[in-house]
From TrEMBL:
UniProt keywords, alphabetically: 4Fe-4S, Iron, Iron-sulfur, Metal-binding, S-adenosyl-L-methionine, Transferase
Protein name: 2-(3-amino-3-carboxypropyl)histidine synthase subunit 1
Cofactor(s) the record lists: [4Fe-4S] cluster
Species of origin: Smittium megazygosporum
Keyword Membrane: no
GO molecular function terms listed in the Swiss-Prot or TrEMBL record: 2-(3-amino-3-carboxypropyl)histidine synthase activity; 4 iron, 4 sulfur cluster binding; metal ion binding
Function: Catalyzes the first step of diphthamide biosynthesis, a post-translational modification of histidine which occurs in elongation factor 2.
Pathway per the UniProt entry: Protein modification; peptidyl-diphthamide biosynthesis
Length: 399
């Protein structure tokens, strides 16, 4: 990736705090005795000032639900704050706190089942959006996005410096920076045509590594966030659209590329090999909620209809050495993370297909170009995704 200009006048740039409107509701309003608890407010100061862990709201929800044992789940990047938050909640809520230390890759990894097995009656999941609705979790659950305040003025000035006025821009990012993204749009829309797309059930502007929107005709994608995993999703889904990433930590704007042709060739080779397979292994991911029983049932029905033998294997982590022990399996289908097949499929000795790729191999759908990034979308192309409306298994889908 190439770095381009991103220092418009950094010495004169101020840090703008994201302004949040307080909507007072009688039922959900946080009591004043929690908001004005001086000892609690002093304890909160131990956490980074620009990270919104919503401690007051968490204390209120724990008290309101009369919880006694609380599970906390963090992505790797926030786990360093887990002990401080645990101490705060134990001190001010008089509850026992369990920190769940297993790896958490994304919102799909929410582990309400483990929380229940640990005897917890309340769970707080940090750093991701509500991909699994709270009315479907098996335990009372609260999501904390952990919004991070950034130097929005620098981001805005960087956009002005690098894009011509009247450019048609698409703003997307990760959930921690969505407030900053929307604020920047308001400040720039008198000079640019800016869209913030939505792939429901995700929030407007949010992209995941497996789910992103197809875009209308635009001049460039501007991604706000660190790392490439989520960014690559919208690159895969929108080939040919110039893409740029602004890292709010380094304050650098970079040109981002993706090798579509190489990915297409690798995945089509795997699909073609899978067409010759006699026995399939169906992996249901057990890392949190990654695996979808609904998708598993759909794939089973399609394999039965195609007169294929299969074996179901439950795995929390999928890696080549583990799968190599199953020598009688000709092809693997993993119902966990589609990006595992795209990013790491080449490292496995047998084809490792996503549910979409199996549908192509069985002839249920045609190969899609661009490659679909719609795994959690409500408007996904087929029943190989968790949120798709159920279609009879004998339906042949063409797009």
């Amino acid at each position: 990736m190439s770095q381009i200009s991103s220092t418009p006048n950094s010495s004169a740039v101020e840090i703008k705090k994201v302004v949040r409107r307080r909507v007072v509701r009688t039922v959900n309003a946080i009591p004043e005795n929690i908001l004005n608890n001086e000892e609690l407010n002093q304890a909160i100061k131990l956490l980074p000032a620009n990270y919104n862990f919503e401690i007051h709201k968490t204390v209120w929800h724990i008290e309101k639900n009369k919880a006694t044992r609380v599970a906390l789940q963090f992505p790797e990047g926030l786990l360093m704050y887990s002990c401080i938050i645990s101490d705060i909640l134990e001190t001010f809520c008089k509850v026992e706190v369990v920190i769940m230390g297993d790896v958490t890759y994304g919102a799909c990894c929410i582990d309400d089942y483990s929380a229940i097995s640990l005897g917890c009656d309340f769970m707080v999941h940090y750093g991701h959006s509500c991909l699994v609705p709270v009315n479907t979790t098996k335990i009372k659950t609260m999501y904390v996005f952990v919004e991070i305040g950034i130097n929005t003025s620098h981001f805005i000035e960087t956009v002005k410096l690098n894009f011509k006025p009247n450019s048609r821009l698409c703003f997307v990012g990760i959930v921690q920076f969505l407030s900053s993204l929307h604020y920047a749009k308001k400040q720039l829309e008198d000079q640019y045509t800016i869209i913030i797309p939505q792939s429901k059930p995700l929030s407007p502007g949010e992209v995941l590594g497996c789910t992103s929107p197809r875009l209308p005709e635009i001049d460039a994608i501007v991604f706000l966030g660190d790392g490439r995993f989520h960014l690559e999703s919208i690159l895969i889904h929108n080939p040919g659209v110039p893409a740029y990433a602004y890292d709010p930590y380094s304050k650098k704007l970079t040109i981002e590329k993706y090798n579509h042709e190489q990915m297409y060739n690798l995945r089509q080779d795997a699909i073609n090999t899978a067409r010759k397979a006699k026995r399939f292994g169906l992996i249901l991911g057990t890392l949190g909620r990654q695996g979808s029983p609904k998708v598993l049932e759909d794939i089973e029905a399609r394999l039965i209809k195609a007169d294929k033998e299969y074996t179901i294997v439950l795995l929390s982590e999928i890696y080549p050495q583990k799968l190599d022990t199953f020598s009688d399996i000709d092809c693997w289908i993993q119902i966990a993370c589609p990006r595992l097949s795209i990013d790491w499929g080449y490292a496995f000795s047998k084809p490792l297909l996503s549910p979409y790729e199996l549908s192509v191999a069985l002839g249920n759908i045609k190969w899609q170009q661009p490659y679909p990034m719609d795994f959690y979308s409500n408007e996904s192309l087929g029943t190989y995704t968790p949120n798709h409306i159920k279609i009879p298994v004998n339906t042949s889908i063409e797009y």
